[in-house]
C-alpha cells in the first residue's frame, strides 16, 4: 500500500516547467521563441511553474497535517487540539535551592529576590527568587530559577558554584536535593503523538495500560516517561505506575500524579504511583576531533547524550553501540574510544537512566 508521502510527492519546478512547455506545444505555440531569459518564457512558463511548485507544497502540508502520523509542528498542535483536546506541553523552568556561605568577617548581607545571578562553569545562569539575611560566617538557602526553560538546567549537585553578583567572602553551591521542580524541554512531536494515541484508552469503562500512561503524562508537565507494571506486581488487582522526568521528580509532583490517577482508576484497582529510581551510568571516553572543531564537537556531543538519555525508557537497555553513535558526531569527531561502560547496561524495571559523562578530548 502506498504511503501518504508517496501519494503526495510534490512535483518539482523542472517537472512543472516541462508540463507547461508540453501543453503549450500541444496548443500550437511556437516554443522556439521561449529561449531562456526571454520575457515570454518568464510570463508563460517560469512564473507559473514557480507558483505551481509552491501550491503543490502547500497541498502536501495540508494533507500531512490531517494525519497524526505525518503532521508536524503547528499542524500537529492544531490536530491534537481539535481531535484529541490536547495541548503541547511547553518548556518549563528549573527551580531549586542554592546555599550561600559567608566566611567569618564577611557580611552581613541583606539579600532581596532578584539580587543575585549564579551560574555553572559551562555558562548556565540562575537568578534568586527568594532572599534573606546572610550573617557573617553563616549560611542562607535561597530559591533560584533558571534563566531559560529546558532540561539542561537540571544540573547535578555542586554545579552551581559561580556567583556572578559580587558578594565578597561569599561562596555558593547547590546541595544534593537542590531541585524543587525540574525544568523540561518542550514536548516533541513524537511525544505529543504518543499522548494522542493513548487518549482513546481512557474512554473505556476500565483502565488499560495506555490509560494509565496517558493519565500520568497529563497530570503534570514535568513527567516525561511512564512505565506501567500491570502484571499484579503486589498481588491480584494491583498496578504500579512508575514516572520520571529529566532531572528527577520531587515528592510534590509524584503526589499530584497520584491524586490525578486515583480519581480516575477503576474502583477495584489498587494503584501505586512512585518515581523511578535513577540509575547513574558513568560514561568514560576519549574523543578525537578535527583541529578547530573542539567547541562545536563538545556542544554536539552534549546535545546527543541529552537526547539519548531522554529517549531511553524506564527499564530499557543502554547499548554501547548507541552510546558510541551519540559520541561520534559528524563531521567534527574522527574517532571514539569508549572505556566505560564496558558492556550493555540493562536497567531494572523501575530504573531511569542518568548519564554521567567524563570525556577526554583530543584535537588531531
UniProtKB/TrEMBL annotation:
<protein>
    <submittedName>
        <fullName>Baseplate J-like protein</fullName>
    </submittedName>
</protein>
<dbReference type="Pfam" id="PF04865">
    <property type="entry name" value="Baseplate_J"/>
</dbReference>
<dbReference type="Pfam" id="PF26078">
    <property type="entry name" value="Baseplate_J_M"/>
</dbReference>
<dbReference type="InterPro" id="IPR058531">
    <property type="entry name" value="Baseplate_J_M"/>
</dbReference>
<dbReference type="InterPro" id="IPR052399">
    <property type="entry name" value="Phage_Baseplate_Assmbl_Protein"/>
</dbReference>
<feature type="domain" description="Baseplate protein J-like barrel">
    <location>
        <begin position="98"/>
        <end position="176"/>
    </location>
</feature>
<feature type="domain" description="Baseplate J-like central">
    <location>
        <begin position="206"/>
        <end position="274"/>
    </location>
</feature>
<dbReference type="InterPro" id="IPR006949">
    <property type="entry name" value="Barrel_Baseplate_J-like"/>
</dbReference>
Amino acid at each position: 500500500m502506498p504511503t501518504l508521502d508517496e501519494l503526495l510527492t510534490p512535483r518539482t519546478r523542472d517537472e512543472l516547467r516541462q508540463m507547461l512547455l508540453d501543453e503549450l506545444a500541444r496548443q500550437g505555440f511556437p516554443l522556439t521563441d521561449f529561449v531562456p531569459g526571454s520575457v515570454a518564457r518568464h510570463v508563460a512558463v517560469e512564473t507559473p511553474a514557480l507558483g505551481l511548485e509552491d501550491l503543490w507544497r502547500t497541498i502536501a502540508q495540508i494533507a500531512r497535517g490531517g494525519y497524526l502520523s505525518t503532521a508536524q509542528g503547528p499542524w500537529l498542535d492544531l490536530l491534537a487540539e481539535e481531535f484529541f483536546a490536547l495541548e503541547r506541553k511547553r518548556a518549563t523552568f528549573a527551580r531549586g535551592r542554592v546555599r550561600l556561605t559567608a566566611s567569618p568577617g564577611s557580611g552581613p548581607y541583606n539579600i532581596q529576590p532578584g539580587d543575585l545571578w549564579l551560574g555553572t562553569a559551562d555558562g548556565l545562569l540562575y537568578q534568586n527568587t527568594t532572599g534573606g539575611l546572610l550573617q557573617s560566617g553563616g549560611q542562607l538557602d535561597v530559591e533560584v530559577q533558571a534563566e531559560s526553560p529546558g532540561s539542561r538546567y537540571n544540573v547535578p549537585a555542586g554545579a552551581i558554584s559561580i556567583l556572578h553578583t559580587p558578594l565578597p567572602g561569599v561562596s555558593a553551591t547547590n546541595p544534593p536535593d537542590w531541585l524543587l521542580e525540574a525544568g523540561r524541554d518542550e514536548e516533541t512531536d513524537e511525544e505529543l503523538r504518543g499522548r494522542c494515541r493513548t487518549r482513546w484508552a481512557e474512554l473505556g469503562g476500565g483502565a488499560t495500560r495506555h490509560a494509565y500512561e496517558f493519565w500520568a503524562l497529563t497530570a503534570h508537565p514535568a513527567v516525561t516517561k511512564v512505565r506501567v507494571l500491570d502484571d499484579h506486581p503486589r498481588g491480584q488487582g494491583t498496578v504500579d505506575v512508575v514516572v520520571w522526568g529529566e532531572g528527577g521528580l520531587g515528592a510534590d509532583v509524584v503526589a499530584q500524579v497520584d491524586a490525578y490517577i486515583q480519581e480516575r482508576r477503576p474502583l477495584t484497582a489498587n494503584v501505586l504511583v512512585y518515581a523511578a529510581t535513577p540509575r547513574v551510568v558513568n560514561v568514560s571516553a576519549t574523543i578525537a576531533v578535527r583541529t578547530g572543531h573542539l567547541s562545536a564537537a563538545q556542544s554536539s556531543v552534549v546535545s546527543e547524550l541529552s537526547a539519548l538519555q531522554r529517549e531511553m525508557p524506564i527499564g530499557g537497555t543502554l547499548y554501547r553501540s548507541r552510546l558510541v553513535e551519540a559520541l561520534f558526531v559528524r563531521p567534527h569527531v574522527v574517532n571514539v574510544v569508549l572505556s566505560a561502560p564496558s558492556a550493555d547496561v540493562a536497567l531494572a524495571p523501575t530504573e531511569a537512566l542518568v548519564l554521567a559523562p567524563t570525556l577526554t578530548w583530543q584535537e588531531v
